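hi support,

uploading two proteins for the ticket. first:
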Amino acid sequence: MPPNFRMDATNVEAQRIRAFCKNTIDIAAEEDYTSIIFPSSLNNDGIDWVAPVLMRSCKEWANESPYFENFAEIRILCTSHDDYEHYVNAANRMNTSKRRSKANDEYDDEMAEQAPPPTASKGRRRGEPLVPIPHEDIEHMKSNGMFLVLSAKLEPTILNLKDQEGRKRQYRMTNRSRDGRKLYFRCSRCDTLAKKCENAVRARLIICNGEIMGDEFPTHHEQCEPWTDEQLLVQQIDRSSRKTVKEGLLQPFEAYQDALTRISSVVANDSKTIELPKFPEWNQIRHQYVRIKKLTDGEGGEGEDEIPEGALDESAEIGYEDEEE
């Protein structure tokens, strides 16, 4: 807990405390923990301030977090009976407020009976489409230099961002809230390195309403290398070309030729001096483009005899050294 947080100072400070607590639970869930214990007091603040804020944090987390179903329990370690009573009273006050809110809304029992029954899962039902990320959030991210680009699966779930030294880092979206306003990212290269060491550092980012929450420049694995402009250029032009095949706009070889033209054009018009990246030869990536075409046409990809044994799969990257997935 940052020592300069004082939840009794202003409402904004209380909101920051709640955000800190909710992010703490999310990080624990990402590390595959199913329970967490909070102390009854934070920063030596009075228990009468801490109890309602911490209880509200847990309630908001349960309503908002995509990790809710993966978590078994959240405990608060009360060291005295008085502390315990404060938390019981805080919980009772929240329940009273909820009942009062229902009364003020003139809750209709008949309408409730006609409403569809709630699903057992608080998460998204299988097959239910995701709520798009709000346009205003995307525009706000762009204004802060944050752009979502195509992943290996040709979805805009990759975040390219500069670190504090101006080097390029790439984060992949690992989860998101149901309303699309809270996005969770992890550094893709840190993730690869972490598979070789259980306790390795993995840089994480959380973006809420288009703003980074918490540390804007998280610590990366000591062996995590930044990306070069050339690597990112080749990667994204390749992926955007494959997407034109997937959408039926171009044939595989047409998309490949278009990629070569665009990469030369971008380098020629770029104000920065970067070398013309070497784009893979057609015979190196033909199987990927053809496979996408066959999947789009509903033919499947198993019958493509040009795909050599052990070829790169759909999640493989082009334009930089091969990494473990």
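and the second one:
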Amino acid sequence: MHTRRFFLSAACLGLATIAGPAEVLAQGTGDALARSIQAHYQQVKDFTAAFEQSYVGGALKRRTVERGTVAIRKPGRMRWDYEAPEKKLFVADGMRMYFYVPADRQVRVSAMPEAGRVPTPILFLAGRGDLLRDFTVEEVQAPMVGTRALKLRPVRKEPEYETLTLVVDATTFVMRQLIVVDGQGGTSTFSFTNLRENVGVAEGKFRFSMPKGVDVVTQE
């Protein structure tokens, strides 16, 4: 998987696939919900969670599922530990990004994107994006009881995705789901459990130690 594409998918944080097209709710465009989500995530400095990532795509629309844990800390720190069905590790330390698949004995390394090239979901998670400025928004039918869903279409065309749908707790606005639809019609969904915010994730969590005997591929 291309490292930048993986970084975008990681930043997007999604959960379970919603069957069929989303139903737009009658109560409006979702501006108020967008403001509430924005306000909540501006005060979140870090979080940890267990996740399930699924992808449905390709001609046969096959579904793949992966599971693991994630830790994110502003600004620009991420660690995704994939545990099943295959071990993988993605680390962003604020300067560089590392993607390691032990079975391949290879580490892909790339620099963090420059500010002007950072996709808007990453800016949002880093506390610098603005949902109402960077997206057209609409509230859609939530997939689970006790949640609300906000569908986002980027104002600036993004090559990696067509739409994002944020699914949040209806009371606390904590992220439960984020659904990413790409330009080829594929859908990535990340589901979160045991999500804990502002727990003081240590800086050392985002340091990547290069394994011995691996091939290192540096990407621009």
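thanks. also noticed: Residues 106 and 219 are 13 Å apart (CA to CA).
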